[in-house]
Amino acid sequence: MIPERIQEAINTQIGHELASAYAYLGMSTYCQSVELTGFAAWLRAQAREEVEHAMKFMGFVEERGGSVRLPAVGEASTRYDSILHVFETALAQERKVSALINDIYALAVDERDYPTQVMLQWFITEQVEEESTFEQMVGKLRMLGDSRDSIFLLDRDAAQRGSETAQ
């Protein structure tokens, strides 16, 4: 049986994962509106990944005999100042999610809930990868500045990630 405090924390995290997916869909909508279709596809792929994370948490709660609760998800922004602004916002989102997962891990240690600690190892590793990916994109976009030609090429590269993960 899953401890009550852990169940509640994971249910809250499910909401954060779904809110992240929704945020990435909003970012994708912005990118589509400014003809950055590669970034739009990349962010839609990221949204799908966040839904998968939520479902992984849901499955874990259910496997341990707990009850899943799906918190409400607020409206996602579709307005950004630039593609750099999109990815800076996304990086901040990933850092927030990492901190929340680390908090659940600390709670699992306090509760001596070893199954949750083991499950969270996957998420901790995943978040290191997620933050690194977004940090690299922010770094590239900062380096490119307002170079439309270079942003176009980066957008084209981003489309490949979107098409690879869509399958």
Task: List the SSEs and their pairings.
Elements: H1 4-33, H2 37-63, H3 83-110, H4 114-144, H5 148-165
Helix pairs in contact: 1-2, 1-3, 2-5, 3-4
Using the alpha-carbon principal axes, give the shape: elongated
Query: Mean of the pLDDT scores?
Result: 95
Counted beta strands: 0
What is the percent of helical residues? over 70%
The CATH superfamily is identified as: Ferritin, core subunit, four-helix bundle
> Do you know the CATH topology?
Ferritin
Low-confidence stretches: none
CATH architecture descriptor: Up-down Bundle
Major sheet details = none
> What is the helix tally?
5
| N-to-C span | 36 Å
Radius of gyration, CA atoms, in whole angstroms = 17 Å
CATH class: Mainly Alpha
Category from helices, strands and their pairing: mainly alpha
Q: What's the helix-strand series?
A: HHHHH
What does the model show?
The protein is an all-alpha fold and 167 residues long. It has one domain: Ferritin. The chain has five helices and no strands. The chain has helices at 4-33, 37-63, 83-110, 114-144, 148-165. Helix 2 (37-63) packs parallel to helix 5. The radius of gyration is 17 Å and the shape is elongated. The mean pLDDT is 95.
